[in-house]
Each structure stands twice: as structure tokens, then as C-alpha cells.
Task: inverse folding
């Protein structure tokens, strides 16, 4: 099932829905008023709401074409956005660093969240904006000290993401948060593909293209620390809650590592595709 947060073009309020037939969205807020307040509410109460959500999707009585709506970030206001660094062997090699023996984590702030097709800013304070195509995990349950054997059950679903990075700010200190948290620098979507749809999240092809040029091409099997290890690590430190977002790492081919390095400029379009999860594509525009 593909669950979305969207805004009809003729209204300001957002809704949640199920994407069906590739080009239609079942409007859950219209089909069943009161079913769930928003995506986090739906995820939190999924055990009680899944059967009714699937029934509404099958009935498909209140639908809207995708062309008549704007897809938003599936979880517009997650409690936490965590991201792991240096987690593909080829990306580690292109940076010239050693393979980490422990996981390297940073946070992206809430202001970075933006939609899967929304403009992304080239900030006024920026020297080098870069792309990082990634698989994104969406947490489905509240939990602490989740061991590896139970980590899969903690994941509600999967998205496509771009961990947009401002390299000059990222390099200012050993703490990467500022360089990862500029406004709009965390697009993900286009929807949540529920976990039951993906037999093995560690066997998905991932590609990132800039203006149609292939820059990144890999497979999630090349993660140094797989998602189950990531959940086990994070949950030792913090209580994970429904709707938390985890960027799981980017492969080689980022702009800063090209020879010569190539930064993103206003007018560029960055597309990230992941097998079975869909694609996001964001135009890059100057900060207003």
C-alpha cells in the first residue's frame, strides 16, 4: 500500500490518502471522516485502522487524480529526522576515509522537510549544495532498546529521499547538523510504501540523476550498517516513535567527490529513484 499526504490544488488544507492504479488517490479524509487526523495518527493506530484503510482503498469511491493535487512530504512534521553518514563502501572510498567501525549519526532539523517535487533552495549563505540519494525508513512503533531481531517490525514503511547537503557548512565542524539542516534540504516521498510491500529492503536498486545525467547508481545491499543495525543502534539512545524518519545512507557519486567537483546550481533538477518505492524530483531555486 502507498500512503500519501497531499493537498488538492483547489484548497489549502492537506489530506491523507492511498495511491491506487498509479494515478489516483483515495481521499481517506473524505471517504471516512475521522478515520485519522494525519499520517502520524494513521501510523500510530495502524493496528486498528489497517483493515478499514484497505477496504476504503479497494472501494475507491472518493478519489482524486494525481494531476489535481500536490504531493507533500508523507510525514510533514516528524518528531525526529535522523541520518547516517558514510554508510556505502563506494561513498567512503570517494571521501578517502576509513570504513567506520561504529555508526556515524547526525540529525536534520524539521525545517528541512519539503515535498517530493517541491523546490529546494540554493541558500544565500551557501558555497556548495550537494545531493545524496537515499532510502528513507519510516518508524511505525514506539520503542526503546529494540534488538536487531525485532527491528524489522519497528518499520512502518519506506520512502525515497535526498539528504541535500551544504558542504561548506558541513565541513565547518565535526558536527554536521547545520550543513544538513538548511530550509527545504530534506525532501522525501513521494509516498510511504508500507513494509509488507517490500520483501527485502536491502536488495533495491537506487539511482540519482542531475538534469538527466546519472550520478549515483547502487543497491541497498551495499549498506555498511543495514537498517536493522541502525534501528538497534538508535533505539539504545532515544525512544523511537511512529513517524520518525531515518535517512539510511547514500552511495558514491556525490557532487563534491567528482573530478572536478560539481555543485548544484539554480535551475538544476535532481531525481532520485528507488526500485519499488517510486521517485522524487526536485528543482533547485535561489533562496527568495
Result:
Amino acid at each position: 500500500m502507498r500512503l500519501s499526504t497531499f493537498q488538492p490544488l483547489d484548497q489549502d488544507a492537506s489530506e491523507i490518502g492511498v495511491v491506487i492504479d498509479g494515478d489516483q488517490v483515495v481521499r481517506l479524509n473524505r471517504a471516512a471522516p475521522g478515520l485519522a487526523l494525519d499520517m502520524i495518527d494513521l501510523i500510530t493506530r495502524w493496528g486498528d485502522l489497517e483493515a478499514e484503510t484497505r477496504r476504503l482503498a479497494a472501494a475507491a469511491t472518493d478519489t482524486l487524480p494525481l494531476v489535481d493535487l500536490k504531493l507533500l512530504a508523507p510525514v510533514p512534521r516528524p518528531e525526529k529526522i535522523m541520518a547516517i553518514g558514510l554508510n556505502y563502501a563506494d561513498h567512503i572510498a570517494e571521501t578517502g576515509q576509513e570504513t567506520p567501525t561504529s555508526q556515524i549519526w547526525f540529525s536534520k532539523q524539521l525545517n528541512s522537510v519539503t515535498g517530493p517535487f517541491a523546490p529546494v533552495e540554493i541558500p544565500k549563505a551557501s558555497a556548495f549544495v550537494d545531493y545524496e540519494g537515499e532510502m528513507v525508513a519510516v518508524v511505525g512503533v514506539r520503542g526503546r532498546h529494540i534488538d536487531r531481531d525485532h527491528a524489522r517490525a519497528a518499520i512502518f514503511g519506506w520512502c525515497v529521499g535526498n539528504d541535500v547537503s551544504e558542504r561548506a557548512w558541513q565541513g565547518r565542524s565535526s558536527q554536521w547538523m547545520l550543513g544538513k539542516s538548511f530550509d527545504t534540504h530534506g525532501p522525501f516521498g513521494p509516498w510511504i510504501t508500507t513494509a509488507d510491500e517490500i520483501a527485502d529492503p536491502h536488495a533495491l536498486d537506487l539511482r540519482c540523476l542531475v538534469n538527466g545525467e546519472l550520478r549515483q547508481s547502487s543497491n541497498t545491499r551495499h549498506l555498511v550498517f543495514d537498517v536493522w543495525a541502525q534501528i538497534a543502534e538508535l533505539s539504545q539512545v532515544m525512544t523511537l516513535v511512529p513517524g520518525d524518519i531515518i535517512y539510511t545512507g547514500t552511495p558514491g557519486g556525490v557532487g563534491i567527490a567528482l573530478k572536478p567537483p560539481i555543485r548544484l546550481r539554480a535551475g538544476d533538477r535532481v531525481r532520485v529513484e528507488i526500485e519499488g518505492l517510486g521517485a522524487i524530483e526536485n528543482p533547485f531555486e535561489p533562496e527568495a
About this structure: The CA atoms of residues 43 and 140 lie 6 Å apart. DSSP finds eight helices and 19 strands in the chain. Residues 2-71 form one domain.
